[in-house]
Amino acid sequence: MLGWRFSEYTPGDGESIFDRLLKLFQELLLYTSGDVRESLSWLTELDRQYGLTNEDYGMADFIQDLIDKGYIEDGESTGKPGYVPTSKMEIALRRRALDDVFGQLKKTKQGNHSTKYDGRGDEQASELRPYEFGDALDSIAVSESLRNAHINHGIDDFKLTPEDLEVQETFYQSQTSTVLMIDISHSMILYGEDRITPAKRVAMALSELITTRYPKDTLDILVFGNDAWQIDIKDLPYLQVGPYHTNTVAGLELAMDILKKRRNPNKQIFMITDGKPTCIKKGKKYYKNSFGLDRTIVTRTLNLAMKCRKMSIPITTFMIARDPYLVRFVDQFTKANNGKAFYSSLQGLGEFIFMDYKNNKRKRK
Fold this sequence. Notes:
The chain is built from 10 helices and 13 strands. The chain has helices at 17-31, 36-50, 59-68, 87-101, 142-153, 196-213, 248-260, 295-310, 324-337, 349-359, and strands at 72-74, 83-85, 114-119, 123-130, 166-173, 176-183, 218-224, 228-231, 266-273, 279-282, 285-288, 315-319, 340-343. The chain has a 6-stranded mixed β-sheet with strand order 8-7-6-9-12-13, with helices on both faces. It is of the alpha/beta class and 365 residues long. The protein starts with 16 loop residues before the first helix and ends in a 6-residue tail after the last helix. Helix 6 runs parallel beside helix 10 and helix 8 (295-310) runs parallel beside helix 9. Strand 6 (176-183), helix 6 (196-213) and strand 7 (218-224) form a beta-alpha-beta unit.
């Protein structure tokens, strides 16, 4: 009998044991903030309970393969005991995060931010238009212009006039400088709910998206608790929550300082947080209030939101909470900045970031 015979689909079928273990190991590395020893300990326990390995391939083989394939290395060179992730592992973590969070994206060699504005741009379009005074000479469509001259004047009295010229239409390809703010206050792991790991995954996916598909853009990452400081992309898997309050003002001030140094005309701030601002700095001392929306703290935060608006820096807030008082504050904050806010589950956070990132790509005049 001619035709196809379908077999039962088994998820992960065709993968080697190493590939399956590697996915689990990468996931555990995020939860343990890059602690190889703890991740392997958890993975060994999972193997004991669920039989992830067999007689031909055991955990010792997997660890040796991690070393041989360059995913982990001895930490003596960096002054750390035991094994540590390599740069190859860090890249693999970011790529996996990109696939997990932005899996709906079509694979392209480069990302572009086309705008609705035509004229003197930096990317050629297929359309032609008559020459206008001031158009660059290198944009003249030579073949089409010569054909017009031949039609208009004939071959015996051939001449080229401005009315014969046509130019290739161009479009702007905008560039954007983005600062990503990540909340590492204690509330990100409060009440036994892990919110920092999904936030890290989204941050890694966004960094991989921008660096690989939007190479002309810039991305700076900062974390904020009692204070705010910049981190490198390679540090994202190792982020840990501290015994901090939420000093949103410090994060915004640092983000604004960073963006002032960027020459791109388009600038924006993404902020991932799960709590209201509870801390500011007055001189050398901290002013803290964990119990509510303190008027002094809220006023300072809203003032910065309005300042960003005057500087044409929109702030997109991704709030991992639905507390009514918090929602009310975020609405005030968003209105003051004329920005955007999403009240999202952790599963939907990545998609919101991508969609908003694309929508903000337009030339401002």
